[in-house]
Write a structure and sequence with these properties.
Length: 667
């Protein structure tokens, strides 16, 4: 029996042994008491699918070149790296799979065998929903079919079982859309060579947190010579961010709340189709499960449609309704071609846009504003809480413990992770409280300016935040332990691939942080190089040139471009395994069909709504639902939306009405 490694910040042990037949076995185990070479091992439990969940609590001894920290929960890996590649089942030349160093490899390797068991139920549920949607469409129950298709798309995007697109769902939505929204609204808009003077952007929802809405706001501001309008398909009662409202007003456009149209998804699709009739170009910035644009633009006629691939790591709908795909990075373009079946000739590049900016505060002044000692070397990360989710035995706080223990003058500040993080408490205690988590906030510029080093979120990167940090001259460090076929999960974007300090394992990550913490001139040099790369590709003339090329490609493209039977079947490569580990295991209750349907009852026709309402009431899924109880689910969604917005307006919390279009008006 041999111990291959004891590594990470948990006592993660990988043991290899040969049985009586000479076959090699590898197990990953959680160790609480271990004596190496002839003495006993005591295991709290074996890791489930090689995912270690324990912590070391007893004193360990050093043996065989392995350094063990006595009396603490953290154990150091051997100084000599033993990084190995694990072969990827994708079979692509040059893709070796994830690295084994630091314990990530065993976690991901174990997940390969476990993936089918974990996703079989979700895939079966998805297949059943797709079949239901097709059957309902064939019977003429178009509204119910559209709602079912939306639920199926949500299961596919959240369930991460290897599907990036669906030929069947696209065909169902195209059939419904052509039947229900088929009027030829504006054939003149589709003439090749028409100048783009008016762009209509379609969003599922606009929110203040994250880069999605900020990119649109900056897009409108940078493209100042054109008129820009916005249609929102599922904004509900959430206020539209003031920055977007102001940008649309300055561009001479209007905002249309499609979800308050009387009726269901088909009525919304018709309203959207009418709203964009006078535009020269439509751009979709939609969520993966939004079916309204697929219905609205299924039939010929109307302006060309661009799909912005802002969720390039997951399943989404919209292929058949789209003229041109806008890819934000090369890794996403590769997924489009390889996993979605998109014609490379239909793809144009459009990187994320940033505001050209200079520092408002020096680093010392920004630290002072935040109440941070100016002598502190500040490591900072900014992202939404799900991007810091635990990954097996590893979590984001633990990843930084080695560097923080080596450097008492360094502190990690994580904005957006949430102030209540019990899973981080042990790591924070290990470094004397120098790991601080804050809740999400919209005004984060001061944190970027205060940071000496920006550390990317993990296991899910935040590209926009990394770009914003780099734009003020802050060096960016990111960890990427996955295989090459999973590059879409890494922090890569046009012009900055060489500027971000990318590490393949925790040991290299710790070494890189240590070098930057101790060398201010190195921080300055890396930060300045990244700042110049970002300015060249993501601001000003460089970004506008990419935008003009996208407009020209879209106006000249044939419609529709989508070939028949082009979407590949779901895959099973390390990209899918990593996605399952990162975002696919957040509780089976999220995939309960009754829970999913409950949220969509208001979109169903009255007869179908009553039928499903009675069933959900009998099963207890409508219990304990506020002052009006189950009765509120009988209201149509458009009515709840209007009432909610009226209540906000009366409280003075509604979006500025000056840019809202009348219900039946076009932009």
């Amino acid at each position: 029996m041999t111990v291959q490694a004891i590594c990470g910040y948990y006592s993660f042990v990988r043991i290899s042994y040969a049985d009586a037949r000479g076959e090699l076995h590898i197990r990953s185990l959680v160790v609480y008491d271990i004596y190496i070479f002839g003495q006993h091992f005591r295991f709290e439990r074996a890791c489930l699918s090689n995912v270690c969940r324990g912590t070391a609590r007893r004193s360990m001894r050093s043996a065989g070149g392995t350094t063990v920290a006595s009396g603490t929960r953290m154990m150091q890996a051997p100084e000599a790296s033993t990084t190995q590649a694990i072969g990827c089942p994708c079979g692509r030349p040059g893709c070796s799979g994830p690295e084994t160093s630091g314990g990530f490899g065993p976690v991901l390797q174990g997940l390969r065998a476990d993936m089918q068991a974990r996703t079989a139920g979700r895939r079966a549920q998805y297949d059943d929903l797709v079949a239901q949607a097709a059957s309902l469409a064939r019977s003429g129950a178009d509204e119910e079919a559209a709602v079912t298709a939306a639920i199926a798309a949500w299961v596919a995007s959240a369930g991460t079982f290897g599907a990036f697109a669906s030929q069947e769902l696209e065909e169902v939505l195209t059939e419904i859309g052509r039947r229900a929204c088929g009027e030829d609204i504006a054939p003149a808009c589709a003439k090749p060579g028409r100048e783009v003077t008016h762009v209509c952007h379609v969003l599922t929802g606009a929110v203040g947190i994250g880069g999605h809405t900020r990119m649109l706001t900056r897009w409108i501001g940078a493209d100042s010579g054109r008129r820009h309008s916005v249609a929102l398909t599922r904004q509900a009662t959430v206020p539209v961010p003031d920055g977007l409202v102001d940008a649309v007003r300055a561009a001479g456009g209007t905002i249309r709340f499609v979800d308050e149209v009387r009726g269901g998804l088909i009525a919304q699709a018709r309203a959207l189709r009418r709203f964009v009739a006078a535009a020269d170009l439509v751009v979709l910035h939609i969520y993966p499960f939004d079916v309204v644009p697929s219905l609205a633009f299924a039939a010929p006629g109307g302006p060309p449609v661009v799909f912005l691939d802002h969720a390039d790591h997951t399943f989404w709908l919209g292929h058949r309704a789209t003229t041109t795909m806008a890819s934000m990075r090369e890794a996403g373009r590769g997924i489009m071609i390889r996993r979605r079946g998109v014609d490379p000739g239909a793809i144009a590049a459009l990187p994320t846009i940033l505001d050209p900016r200079e520092r408002a505060l020096s680093r010392a002044a920004a630290k002072e504003r935040l109440g941070i000692d100016p002598n502190t070397v500040l490591l900072c990360s900014v992202a939404r809480a799900p991007k810091f989710a635990g990954m097996g035995a590893f979590n984001y706080a633990d990843l930084h413990v080695p560097a923080l223990r080596r450097h008492p003058n360094a502190t990690l500040l994580v904005v957006g992770a949430g102030e209540a993080r019990p899973d981080w408490s042990a790591a924070a205690a290990d470094v004397g409280g120098r790991i601080v988590a804050l809740s999400e906030r919209t005004d984060v510029a001061t944190y970027f300016e205060a940071a000496d080093i920006y550390v990317d979120s993990f296991p899910f990167v935040s590209i926009t935040s990394a770009l914003e940090a780099g734009s003020v001259g802050t060096p960016v460090v990111s960890i990427f332990p996955y295989g090459e076929c999973a590059r879409v999960l890494g922090n890569n974007m046009a012009g900055i691939d060489d500027g971000i300090l990318l590490c393949r394992d925790p040991e290299a990550y710790t070494a890189t942080l240590s070098r930057l913490i101790t060398d201010a001139s190195s921080r300055e040099a890396h930060g300045e190089r990244l700042r110049e790369d970002i300015r060249r590709h993501h601001t000003g003339a460089g970004w506008l040139a990419a935008l003009e090329a996208l407009y020209a490609r879209a106006m000249a493209a044939p419609r529709p471009h989508w070939p028949a039977a082009a979407i590949p079947p779901p895959g099973a490569e390390d990209l899918d395994n990593c996605l399952q580990l990162i975002v696919g295991g957040r509780g089976e209750e999220r995939y309960d069909l009754s829970n999913l349907l409950r949220g969509e009852l208001g979109l169903l026709p009255l007869k179908a709504r009553l039928r499903h309402w009675r069933r959900l009431l009998g099963s207890g899924h409508l219990a304990g639902r506020g002052r009006f109880g189950p009765l509120v689910f009988l209201l149509p969604e458009w009515m709840k939306t209007r009432l909610g917005r009226l209540r906000r307006r009366l409280k003075g919390d509604a979006a500025k009405p000056a840019v809202q279009a009348p219900r039946a008006a076009a932009p």
